[in-house]
Design goal:
With about 375 residues, the protein is an alpha/beta fold. The protein has helices at about 30-50, 60-65, 70-85, 95-105, 105-110, 115-130, 145-150, 160-185, 205-215, 250-255, 265-275, 290-310, 350-365, and strands at about 5, 10-15, 55-60, 90-95, 135-140, 190-195, 235-240, 280-285, 315-320, 325-330, 330-335, 340, 345-350, 365. The protein has one domain: TIM Barrel, CATH 3.20.20. Belongs to the glycosyl hydrolase 1 family.
Length: about 375
C-alpha cells in the first residue's frame, strides 16, 4: 500500500484542555485568578512549541469574561498574537455549552432569554473588536445539540413550545454574533460544531437539526417552525469515542456521553457531505482508552477515513485532536491528552501515539510505518 497523503494546506491541530491546567479559574482573588490563567496560557504555549501543529482550537472562559471583559480580551489577544508568531492558526470557540454548563451554570439560563442574550452579544462585540484580523476561524456555538438534549430530552414529555423558543433564541444569538464578526473582519470564517458520537442512527436527525436550521432555514426535527437561513462558512464535526477500559472513568463517561460510537466517522462525513455543500473541519476527535497501541490504531484509522473521504471529494480542510493534555474533572483523570500529567497536574511526556500524530503531521501523510494500524 502506498503512502496516504493530505492536501498541502491541510490544518493539523489540537484542542486546548477542557479545563485549566492549574485548576478552577473561579478560585481566589481577581488578581490571583488572572495570574493563574496567564500562567496556564504560557504553559500551553510552551508545550505547543514542542509540537508541529499549524492550528490550535481553544474555548473562551466566560467566567473570566464576565469578571473583567477588557482584561480578558487583552489577555486572549496577547495569547493569539503569540500563536501567530509561532505560525499557529488560532481557532476560537466563542460559546462552548459543555464548558458553560460545567463552569458557569447560571449563564445557561441567560441564553434562554432574548433579553439576556444581549449581555453575551455585548461581550462578543468587545471580543471580536479586540481580535480584529488576528482570528480567521470562529466556532460560534459548540455542542448546541448536546445542550438541547440535556435541557429538553431527559424526560419523555417534551415542552415543544419552550424547545422552539430556545432554538429561536440560539439562532438569534448565532446570527447576531456572525453579524458582529463579519462587520469587523469580513474575511473571518464562521461555524457551529456538533457532537456526532451517537449510538443509534435515528439520533442523527437531532444532531443535524440545528445545522439544518442554520443552513436551510428549516429542519425535519422542527417540522412546524420556519426559520431564517443564516450565514455559515464551514461545519465542525466532533467525533469522540467516550469508551474506556478503566473502571475509574465509568461514572464520568456516563455523564458526558449517552453511548458508544456505533456510527463511523466516514459515515458521518458522507452524510454531512450529502446534506450540505460546505467545507468541514474535524473539530474534536479523541479515544479515552488507556492503551497507547489502541489509541494509535484509533487515530490512524480515523485519519485514513478522512483521507479516503477527501478522495471521494469531501471538503475536509483540517483535523483537530482533542486534547493537548489529560484532564482532571471531579477527581477523575481522563488520560486523553497528547501530554501525560501526574496527580499534581505536572507534565511528564508526550504519549507514544502523540509521537505518531506528530510524525504524520510532519510527513503530511500516513507513511508505510503506520499503515499496519489500518483495519
Amino acid at each position: 500500500m502506498e503512502n496516504v497523503d493530505f492536501p498541502k494546506s491541510f490544518l493539523w491541530g489540537v484542542n486546548s484542555p477542557f479545563l485549566s491546567f492549574l485548576g478552577n479559574s473561579r478560585e481566589g482573588s481577581k488578581k490571583q485568578i488572572f495570574e493563574n490563567v496567564e500562567k496556564d496560557l504560557e504553559e500551553q504555549l510552551s508545550f505547543l512549541e514542542k509540537l508541529k501543529i499549524n492550528s490550535f482550537r481553544f474555548h473562551l472562559n466566560w467566567d473570566l469574561l464576565f469578571l473583567d471583559t477588557f482584561y480578558s480580551c487583552a489577555m486572549y489577544n496577547n495569547f493569539i498574537e503569540q500563536l501567530r508568531k509561532k505560525e499557529i492558526e488560532p481557532i476560537v470557540n466563542l460559546i462552548d455549552f459543555d464548558f458553560l454548563s460545567y463552569n458557569k451554570r447560571e449563564a445557561i439560563d441567560n441564553i434562554e432569554s432574548e433579553e439576556k442574550i444581549s449581555i453575551f452579544i455585548e461581550i462578543i462585540e468587545k471580543i471580536v473588536s479586540t481580535f480584529k484580523y488576528n482570528v480567521q476561524y470562529y466556532i460560534v456555538l459548540n455542542h448546541t445539540t448536546e445542550y438541547l438534549k440535556r435541557r429538553f430530552f431527559k424526560v419523555t414529555d417534551v415542552d415543544n413550545l419552550a424547545l422552539h423558543e430556545t432554538v429561536q433564541n440560539l439562532l438569534n444569538l448565532y446570527d447576531k454574533s456572525v453579524q458582529i464578526i463579519k462587520s469587523i473582519n469580513p474575511y473571518a470564517k464562521v461555524s457551529v460544531s456538533e457532537e456526532f458520537n451517537v449510538d443509534e442512527e435515528d439520533q442523527l436527525d437531532l444532531v443535524f437539526s440545528f445545522i439544518d436550521v442554520i443552513v436551510r432555514g428549516e429542519s425535519p426535527f422542527f417540522e412546524k417552525i420556519a426559520f431564517k437561513k443564516s450565514d455559515i462558512d464551514f461545519i465542525g464535526i466532533n467525533f469522540n469515542d467516550f469508551t474506556s477500559n478503566s473502571e475509574e472513568y465509568i461514572s464520568l463517561i456516563r455523564e458526558l456521553s449517552d453511548g458508544k460510537n456505533n456510527i463511523d466517522l466516514d459515515e458521518v462525513i458522507k452524510r454531512c457531505s450529502s446534506k450540505y455543500n460546505l467545507p468541514f473541519l474535524i473539530t474534536e476527535n479523541i479515544a479515552t482508552g488507556e492503551d497507547d497501541s489502541l489509541k494509535s490504531r484509533y487515530l490512524v484509522n480515523n485519519l485514513y477515513k478522512i483521507n479516503q473521504s477527501l478522495e471521494n471529494n469531501a471538503k475536509i480542510f483540517g483535523y483537530i485532536y482533542n486534547s493537548l493534555s489529560d484532564v482532571k474533572i471531579n477527581n477523575h483523570l481522563l488520560k486523553t491528552g497528547l501530554y501525560r500529567i501526574d496527580d499534581k497536574n505536572r507534565y511528564i511526556s508526550l504519549r507514544n501515539f502523540a509521537k505518531i500524530y506528530l510524525n504524520i503531521i510532519e510527513d503530511n501523510g500516513i507513511n508505510e510505518r503506520y499503515l499496519k494500524y489500518i483495519d
